[in-house]
Amino acid sequence: MALTPSRLLSITVCLVLSAYAFVCYTTVQLVIFPSMGPELTTPLVLHLSAFSAIALLGIVSYAAAVMIDPGSVPPGWMPDAEENNDMAVQEVKSDGGARFCSKCQAYKPPRCHHCRICKACVLRMDHHCVWIANCVGQHNYHPFFLFVLYFLVGCAYALYLLINQLLQDIDSLEDTASEAQERDRRRLPHQSFEISWDSLYRIFTAILVLPLAIGLGVLFCWHVYLVLHNKTTIEYHEGVRARWLAKKKGQLYKHPYDLGIVRNLITIFGPNATSWFWPTLQSPGGDGLSFRTYLHLSTETDRSVGLDEEVRLETRTDDDDFISLGHKPVIH
Ligand SMILES: [Zn+2]
Ligand SMILES: [Zn+2]
After folding, report:
1. Are 30 and 198 in contact (CB under 8 A)?
2. Which segments cross the bilayer (predicted)?
3. Shortest CA distance to 323 belongs to which of 95, 106, 127?
4. From CA 61, how far away is CA 146, in angstroms rounded?
5. How far lies 2's CA from each of 50, 71, 140, 230, in Å?
6. CB 24 within 8 A of CB 143
7. Nearest CA-CA partner of 16 in 127, 133, 117
8. How many helices and strands, by DSSP H and E, does the chain display?
């Protein structure tokens, strides 16, 4: 699998890594250690181990999503004429011809789209992500999903620890102030300043983490939805138009690559469930040139509801091709 480590040096990648490193450092140095005391207690070891593991998995997943090539069309690739049968989903231009990228001067496999920013056709393209300075496609979707998951868990964990510590700060500040007033008013300003400095650092980190956690949470829920339906972001938008066109014709649109939740998970993350949570350099979801569709799973029941009738649904893609997606919807 092709790797481009130089992407790690891009400005947005450095910015993301710096912000995340700052959040991790502040959480460990100013929250976990002070709240647990100087001794190596069991809660300290547990929090430190759990937070470090999540942070490390997040950074490794992020680096993999940045470096791994999302998938390019092999030179000379041609659509397989024999694939154009009952079991294959036919993605064609509106004139019925094979999808061809005029910019790359090459045929496009199913689910492949041209990225204007990368200036290349990307296999099973989801979207171009500025935060990883890379396209999200066939080969780096898994680490991209894990990066969102682990950054979300890391930020939520950090936020929980930060808020807990800030509540303790408020309590100790009130205690210190009342004690100092009773004993010696001259010591109050110095103690108050030291506590406030650390608290300000924690407040600043919490302000940074909160929108980050909300944004990652929304992004994670969105990709959970996409994974469960075996869709890409592009296909979701194409599906909205395809569904509208089907409705106009009195038909029901069905996303052709949706094989059911379990099969969708296996298709995207691989058959071994224990490896779903570890970023790997090897794409678990195949070569990205051909994909199973629900037509492969057709049963007698499927055919009885009208799968034999072919209806073409034209949708506009980001690179101005008209394609036929899900050309055999269930007819009711
Ligand atoms: Zn192209
Ligand atoms: Zn791109």
Report:
1. yes
2. 45-68, 144-163, 203-228
3. 95
4. 6
5. 32, 8, 11, 24
6. no
7. 133
8. 8, 8
Q: Which tokens hold the place of 181?
A: 């007033």
pLDDT in tens, 305-332: 333 333 333 344 444 443 344 334 333 3
Cα 118 to averaged position of ligand 1 atoms, centre (Å): 9
Domain residue extents for the chain = 1-68+140-178+189-228, 70-134+230-332
The closest ligand to the CA of 112 turns out to be 1
Supply the pLDDT for residue 148.
Answer: 97
Residue 284 near residue 268 (C-beta atoms within 8 A): yes
Site of tokens 């593991």: 53
| Catalytic positions | 129
Kindly identify the ligand whose nearest atom is closest to the C-alpha of 69. Answer: 2
Q: What's the whole-number mean pLDDT along residues 228-237?
A: 94
Instruction: Compute the distance between CA of residue 9 and CA of residue 102 in angstroms, rounded to an integer.
Output: 31
